[in-house]
Write a structure and sequence with these properties.
Blueprint lengths: L1 H29 L4 H14 L2 H7 L2 H4 L3 H24 L4 H21 L2 H11 L1
Helix pairs in contact: 1-2, 1-6, 2-5, 2-6, 5-6
């Protein structure tokens, strides 16, 4: 039973990441006149959709359900590097990076809560019937 659930979580993860990317990128486009916000939100959005690439690099079949957390840690490492660079360059981390980190965390939590839930299994079974 864990195998089908992990497949459903995978497709849910893609959907949630696309939604998160759209929110961050749309917000960045709105703020294109403020280059400090624009470039940091676009970088955060790009890091958010790196997960499929990281999933191909990491040994996902060996990780099972904890693989999504490994990808989350890897994406947060990229965002953390950007935040560290910002802190060294400007003396503080820009607020846009914190919004990006919040979006990455929210997407990961939703994948973990909804993606492996019995309710999602029921919904998919009803839709497939």
């Amino acid at each position: 039973m864990s195998r089908p659930s992990s497949r459903r979580a995978f497709f849910l993860a893609l959907d949630l990441q696309i939604i998160g990317f759209a929110i961050l990128a749309g917000w960045a486009i709105q703020l294109r006149h403020r280059s400090d916000w624009h470039k940091r939100l676009m970088l955060s959005a790009t890091i958010l959709i790196m997960s499929p690439a990281l999933g191909r690099i990491l040994p996902m079949p060996l990780m099972g359900p904890s693989g999504t957390w490994a990808i989350f840690i890897a994406t947060m490492a990229y965002l953390g590097a950007a935040m560290l660079f910002d802190a060294q360059l400007r003396g503080r981390v820009h607020l846009a990076y914190w919004w990006g980190a919040a979006m990455l965390t929210l997407v990961q939590l939703l994948i973990g809560i909804v993606g492996f839930s019995p309710q999602l299994d029921k919904l998919v079974a009803q839709l497939a019937a």
